[in-house]
Amino acid sequence: MAVYSGAGHFLVLQLAVFAVYSPTYSVSASLLIKSDGGRGGNQDMFSDLLLYKESTNKQNEVEILKSRTMMMRVVRTLNLQCSYYVVGNVKTPNIYKDSPFELQLIPPFDSARSMTLEVHKVGKDVFRLGENQKEYHFGEIITVGERKVMLVQRESRYSSEEYQDFIVKWQPVEQAALSVLGRLEVTGTADLSNVLKLTYVTENPRLGADIINTLMNEYSETGVEDKNQTNRKIISFIDDRLRFVEIQLDSVEKDLQLFKTNRQVIDLSTQSNVYFNNLNEMTKGIQQQELQFQVIELVENYLRDSTHNLSLVPSTLGLEDKTLSDLTSNYNQLLVSRSTELQTGATINSPVIKAIDRNIDDARQKLLRNLVNIKTVYRNAITAMQSQNKDYQSQLASIPEKERESREKARQQEIKQNLYLYLLQKKEESGIAQASVIPDSRVIDEALNSGALVSPNSVRIYLIALLIGLMIPVVIIYSIELLNDKVTTRSDITKITDVPIVAEVGHSNEKNVLLFPGNSRTVVAEQIRILRSNLRFLFLDRPKQNTILVTSSFSGEGKSFISINLGAAMALSGKKTVILEFDLRKPKIVEGLGLPKGQGLTNYLIGSSNLAQLPQAVPSIENLYVIPSGPIPPNPSEILLSEKMSELFNWLHENFDVVVIDTAPVGLVSDSMSLGQYADATLYLVRQRYTHKKQLQFIQELYIKKSLPNIGLVINDVISKGAKSYYGYGGGRYGYGYGYGYGAHNGYYEDHNSEYWGKLKRMFSKKK
Q1: C-alpha separations of 414 from 100, 258, 267, 399, 426 in Å
Q2: Alpha-carbon distance 613 to 600, whole Å?
């Protein structure tokens, strides 16, 4: 890298040759002015293709673009009323959008007069104005004449102590617009063309590009605003009607709700079926009770008939009454006893027969009384069931009336709702019409920040310096890459293995392992979310499964970091997630999350712990749990072959939506192979600048032999080199922490020559 620094110094010497000159840039853009007429004929169609218009007065549009009114809109948009300059040794350039402080006006403020402030920084937060020796602090209200202002600090490349003298100019909007118009030129490209060329000459091409681009945007917006007057009035009218109809719709819906509540209307068709079924059941019950009642009357009449006094009483004919059954059985036994005595020689007048006759009469009276009681019970039951039956009939008869009233109220509600939806539709149509208004102009080429250098002509100097500055770093970089045996580029992976790349996780130096929710908007956190989204492609053949195995070739490739944050991302999506600390040799999950160590997986597998007591909730993440590894066993590989492993994962699948297994490196021990049978997908970590290329062949063998289920690669600790990212996503430095990070800066990539270039830019400013 020392060679590269020397090339940079050579470039500085070349630039110093013409640094004393004040370069002037010409910034330009092209604008097409469309025809005033519509596109109704073929002539207009071809005119559009040829950028040719006959019905447009091009000179009018030129005057509009150069008008003071249009430029005042630009001044207000870009806040060009206030200009900032840094005082250098040779020149004082405009530092548009790079000022280390901002001028704020304190109302009431006299905006009719210009104002110039000479600011001299005498410290980090202290400055003086002009020749006045009084010191002020940034953020302090300052009185300048009869007006009050305040300077507020902000970060800028001119914030260092090397730049101390600045000039701030404030102008009224009209005066600022006139000063900008003096450098603007609007011309037509050809007599028959409607294309206008806008050119702005300035020492700051960024300022010139913003002025021209903003002018074209304001010109287009002015045309659109003129066309949208009708649409805005229609939308305003519809909004008023919507508020009125919304009140009516709310009233009708509340009336319908109150009707259904008071009349107990839920689903009239279903209610009608329920009432009809209840009526049928009640009718059957009444018929059954009446049948039993008639059977009782038959038995009673049989007993009251004197011709049957000495005849056996028939069975109870299905009557389920124990007392009646006992009395009938006793009565029949007495009759059998009397018949037996008579057959053995006893006479009717014998004392034995008379005693039996008295018992028979007594038993008959008990039977009759019991039958009367049973009849009373059945009669009451029949009466109650008939009353209930009438209620069912009444409810069934009220259904048509309820249905008519319900339909009437629903019809009113539907009318109001349709009117409301119709107004909403018209509002959307008007909004679409307003949004789809095409301006009368179209930007062909926007102004670029670079601009065309008018003077001095330094193309040759730049080319020579650029060639020398590029050749030496290219040779050094090529040599470094040639001798490198670590994974550094995407092609290093894709040309060796066919394993799909699921996601890439960048570099970070956050102290906390858990990026969620505190750093949930960082680049690394977003990459973890991308990993969560891409996981669904690994589950295509197992859509209902949810067990993810995280492994790598060696220790230090970020398995624990990925496991923790992937689990957090899953939990934040609403899934109940558990992380298993199955790296029994070097557990890091619980330590990284700051959770207490205690009983864990090894305790359960040897039968000394209850499984339901192992999960520990992560305080900062809802739905996220961790099951620690427990004490480090002397035989980790053998303990994973325990029969209780199946019971463990069955319990996990019943109680959690997602299971993340943090396991030992598959390139060192066989733990991952043993746990692979319980996983649905495998995330294999490859760390940039850490994993050896020869390990990719080992990953390819695992993929071909399907030693692990559904393998997908996660490229970890990605750091870009230069302006283009490691995987083509642009510049920037991303990554992960938890003991695996590199670099001294938090967040984004900084070129190792940034300090050198800063000195170069400051030298230029001073000489300007």
Answers
A1: 62, 16, 18, 22, 18
A2: 9
How is residue 447 annotated by DSSP? P
Distance CA(606)–CA(466), nearest Å, equals 68
CA dihedral 187, 190, 195, 197 (to 10 degrees): -30
Give per-residue pLDDT as tens, 499-521.
Answer: 999 999 988 777 788 888 766 77
CA distance 332 to 336: 6
| CB-facing half-sphere around the CA of 599: CA atoms within 13 A | 13
User: What region does 627 belong to: left with phi over 0, alpha with psi -120 to 50, or beta?
Assistant: beta
How many Å apart are CA 696 and CA 489, to the nearest integer? 13
Assign 3-class secondary structure to 282-308.
HHHHHHHHHHHHHHHHHHHHHHHCHHH
Residue 320, SS3 per DSSP: coil
Is the alpha carbon torsion for 349, 351, 352, 355 positive or negative? positive
Alpha helices in 305-350 (DSSP H): 322-343
| Helix, strand, or coil (residue 621) | coil
Q: Which two tokens stand for residue 298?
A: 């038959």
Report yes or no on whether pTM surpasses 0.90.
Answer: no
Return the bridge partners of 591, or none. none
DSSP states along 345-381: T--TTSHHHHHHHHHHHHHHHHHHHHHHHHHHHHHHH
165-174, 434-443, 490-499, 694-703: least confidently modelled range: 434-443
Helices (H) and strands (E) in the chain, counts: 21, 21
CB neighbours of 562 closer than 8 A, spacing ≥ 6? 505, 528, 531, 550, 683, 685, 714, 716, 736
Tens of pLDDT, residue by residue over 316-334, are: 565 667 777 777 777 777 7
